[in-house]
Specification:
Layout (H helix, E strand, L loop, with lengths): L2 H13 L4 H14 L3 E3 L12 E6 L3 E6 L8 E7 L4 E12 L2 E9 L12 E11 L2 E8 L33 E4 L5 H7 L4 E10 L4 E3 L5 E4 L2 H15 L7 E7 L16 H12 L4 H9 L2 E5 L2 E2 L21 E4 L10 H13 L4 E4 L12 H5 L5 E6 L1 E3 L6 E4 L2 H13 L3 E5 L2 E4 L1
Parallel strand pairs: 1-2, 4-13, 4-14, 14-18, 15-19, 16-17
Antiparallel strand pairs: 2-3, 3-13, 5-6, 6-9, 7-8, 7-10, 11-12, 12-20, 16-18, 19-20, 21-22
Helix pairs in contact: 4-9
The structure holds cobalt (II) ion.
């Protein structure tokens, strides 16, 4: 794997993924090019030995897998998320006032509001319409400089640099143009169709950048968590599984708690694993045995130590960009990593010369959460929480290390090719 090429492709992936729908669409096309066949949850699955498959839910989550053999020992699962903090356009979005048309939007996830001001924005998502007796979903992307959230001049807000508290309903509404353009947004989005429903989001128009004196850093929107999704995908596509089924999953809605039909806290993974077992001739007992000999990597970006705020990091565990994969720990199990998971994953990384580092929150700071423990409430198995170190998490333009995506891809290639078999109580055979 070539580091420069991986960063180029990562930026292309981010450019083409303004929303979770577009990210999943990009992944689908990439999988299809490599011979993966689409399965539908609403149709019967006939799986062949040696076959490669994928299934989506809501067009915003995806699970791909291959069947090296029907009497496989377990599942090697790599999961990440497709969504990022943004603003969702409400129903009846137009507000006309003082000669402007503004869009009524709602926050999606925990965006850093101030980063969204004074830069051209656009709109993408999906629309739903009827054709004959069919309800059809279509992805849309207006792909032009269309909106702006203007900041308030400093003359009208002298304290802005001292204290900042921004209100989602009053401060964050973008304008789309002058009064005369009323109705323009839906006209453009619908493309002549009568829209019955929509999930439309704002996104930034900035291009990605590789920068720094020695090209150390890569910046773009949505690195959390598409960087992990991308690294996992490359590892998955280059893996050579023998005894276990590699499962590459990207779930939507992590930024809003994962509790949706397509989120990590849904039945999507469980349903998929059960159906794989059934289609391979396993009974309920054999399915439980397979899950006990499985492992999950829950990959979601991690905080790098901040150059101007070192005091926010733990005194000892201080991840840096370009220093390898971050293993996340939390005594209260917001992160799933335990001694077995840490041992297995660290050993796996060092076997392919990928460095690892540790993250914990300061003991007096609660920190965030992710998808691993929620997924475990449906399919419970040994899991490690990891991520790639980044700055400015939940800014609309985030920064990560140029070496780290390759580290993740290399480790995940090894992971998806491996097996993790329960041999005795507390003892696992690594293959
Ligand atoms: Co995340």
């Amino acid at each position: 794997m070539n580091c420069e090429k991986i960063n180029e492709e990562l930026l292309e992936f981010l450019d083409k993924s303004p929303t979770c729908f577009h990210a999943i669409d990009y992944v689908k096309k990439k999988l299809e090019k490599q011979g993966y066949q689409q399965l539908l949850e609403g149709k019967t699955w006939n799986l062949e030995e040696g076959g490669k498959y994928y299934v989506t839910r809501n067009l915003s989550s995806i699970i791909a897998f291959q069947i090296p053999k029907k009497n496989f020992t377990g599942f090697m699962i790599g999961a990440s998320h497709s969504d990022s903090p943004t603003f969702k356009i409400k129903d009846n979005p137009e507000i006309v006032s003082d000669g402007y048309v503004k869009l009524n939007v709602e926050r999606y996830g925990g965006a850093l509001f101030h980063t969204w001001f004074d830069r051209p924005l656009s709109v993408a998502g999906r629309i739903v319409y009827r054709e004959g007796n069919k309800l059809i979903s279509k992805l849309v992307n207006l792909d032009r400089d269309l909106l702006m959230i203007p900041s308030l001049a400093i003359h009208m807000n002298r304290k802005v640099n001292d204290e900042s508290s921004l209100n989602a309903q009053t401060d964050m509404l973008p304008i789309i143009g002058s009064e005369e353009c009323k109705g323009e947004l839906m006209k453009e989005v619908s493309d002549g169709k009568e829209i019955l429903g929509h999930d439309l989001f704002l996104y930034i128009r900035d291009k990605g950048s590789v920068w720094g004196a020695k090209q150390e850093y890569v910046s773009h929107g949505r690195l959390d968590d598409l960087q992990c999704g991308y690294g996992n995908m490359i590892g998955f596509l280059e893996s050579t599984p023998k005894n276990s089924v590699p499962v590459f999953a990207i779930f939507d809605n992590e930024e809003v708690g994962s509790l949706t039909k397509q989120g990590a806290n849904s039945t999507f993974l469980e349903d998929t694993l059960t159906r794989i077992c059934f289609a391979c001739g396993k009974d309920k007992e054999q399915e439980k045995t397979a899950v006990a000999s499985s492992f999950m990597v829950s990959a979601d970006n991690a905080h790098a130590v901040h150059p101007n705020h070192g005091e926010k990091a733990d005194p000892v565990n201080r991840p840096q960009m370009n220093k390898g994969i971050v293993i996340k720990f939390n005594a209260n199990q917001k992160y799933t990593t335990d001694a077995v998971a840490q041992g297995f994953f660290k050993d796996l990384c060092s076997s392919v010369n990928v460095p690892t580092q540790s993250f914990t929150n300061r003991s007096d700071m609660p920190g965030g959460s992710t998808l691993g423990n929620l997924s475990n409430s449906h399919v419970s198995l040994n899991t490690v929480d990891i991520g790639l170190a980044q700055l400015a998490m939940h800014s609309c333009y985030e920064t990560a290390g140029t070496k780290d995506t390759e580290y993740l891809a290399t480790a995940m290639q090894k992971f998806f090719s491996s097996s993790f078999i329960q041999e005795e109580e507390g003892t696992y055979l690594i293959d």
